[in-house]
Write the structure tokens for this entry.
Amino acid sequence: MIRLGSSKVVVTEVSVLSSLGCTPDELVSALRSQTRGLTAEHRFHAHTRGVLGVVPSHIYEGASARLGQADVAGLRAITHCLDSLASRSGVFERYAPERIGLYLGTSNSGVDSLLEDGKWRLADALEQALRTLFPLRGPSFTFCTACSSAAHAIAQGAFAVAAGEADAAIVGGIDLLNPMAVCGFEALQILDSQSCRPFHHSRAGINLGEGGALLLLERASAFSARGRVLGSVAGYGCSSDAHHITHPDPSGVGMRLSMERALRDAGIKPTDVNYINAHGTGTRANDAAEALAIAGLFGVSVPVSSTKGLHGHLLGSAGALEAVVSLLALRESMVWAGASLEDETYEPGVCIPRVPSKSLMRYVVSNSFGFGGNNVSLVFGSSGEVERAL
Amino acid sequence: MHSDAPMAANRPLRVVSNAACVLELSTPLSFSHPLSRRMTPLQKVLLEVAHRVEARAPELFARFVREGGCSLYFATALGELSSNLGMLEALRREELPLSPTAFQHSVHNCPVGYLSILMGLKNPIVTLCGGLDAAHKALTLGVADARRSARFSASGHASVFVLAADELREDASASGHLARAEALLLETCSEEDVEKSSDEVFLTGDVFLPSGGRNDAATPQWAWPWILGPDSGILPESVSRPGNGVFPRASETRWIFRK
């Protein structure tokens, strides 16, 4: 496995789309105030009585002549994000098209309109459409591992930049909710009709969310050119539970292996980590297993929180939004907390902060654990760590 | 505009073992498991090729995959197509709730998830929707992974297990074919290994980097992009595969399989 820790791949720009906000500053403000973006006012009333984290409708509504025959809601949303990322970073002016990679994660892209006019819309439809709308001629891939999809996309994009297969990579993902996803999770009976409470003793399931994020990855030499970076992609770990197609291994062994591999790839110890942004879905199974895994590897010294109680579970793009949450924790020197709850009884063995707090931040671990027992952990390093290493 | 990075070394890889399968109703399976009774054709065909790869090189499969923990790269263009179409139809008819089993099967990595469960593999597994180029994209990423991993390993050696599978639509096949899959177990080697060998298959050449845009969806008549193909065995002579017509420009493909 490649050593990302020695490769200095940095994140120089991000764009976000979520129920907490559509800019990094809006997201920071919501995280600081523990604002919940979940609402019962959404477009899926016919399918669920629960709360969802939905994005502003103006992002994806309305026809777009620019998108032509590929005009679908998901493409409008991701195009909005990429336009924002490109205008702030100048990526298309600074790099040749064949030297920019595109690595996306999705769980349901295209599924809601699989068969149209005798042709199939494939899950890589967004990737292919972006390649025609933007000067993107480098390597491009779409990853579909359910809830760990975007985390894989970030890692693979980082590998490509580190190895010289691309000079820059646009990574992440945007997933919009659709009836099949909402009804599917209803059928699994793991949705919480109230706001979810990750790691809490009374947790009752997931709140779905939509949106995601795009990140621009470059080599660390870009630091001097840009003057600032958000942080680095310092490590990647992946494992398989080999246990059950939807339920995690209750022992947390696979999840722990994922985090161990990420730390090894980053070349750091558990004591070097200042905050863990957990997968923390709010289901009894995931949170129990993840708490065991974290406690076994880190003990109770590292604060752990899941922000899904604020923005919902974004499925395939969860890893992207939560990567940005992790990077913003590094930028702001803040340990984020989940939603504020009156009863503060959580899963034993893990340190769950009640409120966001200032902290020295060097490394953050972000977990994404998907159906099929696919576990991915990413380590992000602070801008200060990048500067020290240069 | 600039490009200041070193290119990845283009080490050759040896095809340790490979298998391809077109699953029919009558195809005998080389594996048996209580779960297999309820598995979809896509899940069965992927398990079948994986078991065939292991059967053809059991010691190396154990060393590289089971004990060595190499990464698996799996691609499917259409995923569990029948399950997804069935659920969309149920939604259209407002027949709720949906089948929880069908929804579990709707994720693209479900087939390889079952593979990891039934074969007890805790390896890193990456699943791509490769679109029309599914198998080739899995091969591209898998080869890149192996070449990068070899640079950082103490032995200078790495391996990777590449798989691809897709369901066949009823209207695309009148012959009873249900699904197809291909799998290759690859290990890095040296140019010297390639020169000294007379009867093995090697993969040399550049990593494929698609540079053309494409914005059309697949048609049912789409030809699945085999890598070596179902009856390839050992290639009889050095061949350069220029592309199979799926890529925008045939000359983009630069895989070279040589004996």
Notes: The radius of gyration of chain A is 19 Å. The mean pLDDT of chain A is 91. Chain A has twelve helices and 14 strands.
